[in-house]
């Protein structure tokens, strides 16, 4: 290797943290080595490595110690701090100005004790994760029981007051406030329970032909009609509606969250949903004209427990969009978002599996 070539190669080797050797293809001489290789293979003495054939330095002089051509992988023993370990080298061809060499990059082979420690650590993490999942599931179920009892008692109280002619506007207002809070708590518990199933890998998508526009229309009627602010959800459809292959319950959770957010983070204009049935895909956009999302928050928007920096005072858990992304992708869809502060937000879902195309 010419001097100017050697200089360029040396600069290249300095940028690699693992042990690296450049070996001639004919006599298998170590022509160059980076600092890490000299440190671990020759105790810091370059003269004991560079310029020597591999079989002389590590094969006891035996010609058969390293077959020709050099195999795609080989190991070299090293001694550090009185302990013997192995460096596993992976070999690939290298061409410099038309001449061929062997490039060998090595990594330390982990000892059985180190592997055992890592395995124990992974088992502990797995056990801790299972405990978290069980705790979330148990908490969700335990809270749901008293909430159901409170909701039933409120219904009985409202009915009794009405029968006795004592249901005033004050009573109606307070009962409505309590009902709203219970609805919000139940929604939060649903999100926690869903997240626990996802974290525990305890869920499967049940793919069947479903009509997204019917799901959205049902959700509008059940949850987003007769609002106190008189706003409503605008739905528009382009193209001929076709069923897609998806899990109906998962899609309902996705649509509920995105529609709810559209109302929650806006106060004046009506949120809208647009379904575009194209030849090979369905595009659904959920749009609001609310507070928007800061650009710096967008990369973290689908992370569990993340909430935007401009949503102080607005209730939420930071779980919804994480669940939305998981369910969209589990149904072979994609989700993207575009937004700006005080410019509103648009979520775009794309599904490409029409039921009639399967």
TrEMBL record:
Keyword Coiled coil: yes
Alphabetized UniProt keyword annotations: Coiled coil, Kinase, Phosphoprotein, Transferase, Two-component regulatory system
SMART domains linked to this entry: HATPase_c, HisKA
First-level EC class: transferase
InterPro entries, per the entry: HATPase_C_sf, HATPase_dom, His_kinase_dom, HisK_dim/P_dom, HisK_dim/P_sf, Sensor_HK_Regulatory, Sig_transdc_His_kin-like_C
Domain of life: Bacteria
Record flagged with keyword Hydrolase: no
Enzyme Commission numbers on file: 2.7.13.3
PROSITE patterns for the chain: HIS_KIN
Residue ranges annotated for the Histidine kinase domain, each copy included: 138-355
One Gene Ontology MF term: kinase activity
Parts forming coiled coils: 105-132
Catalytic activity line of the entry: ATP + protein L-histidine = ADP + protein N-phospho-L-histidine
UniProt protein name: histidine kinase
Organism from which the protein derives: Chitinophaga caseinilytica
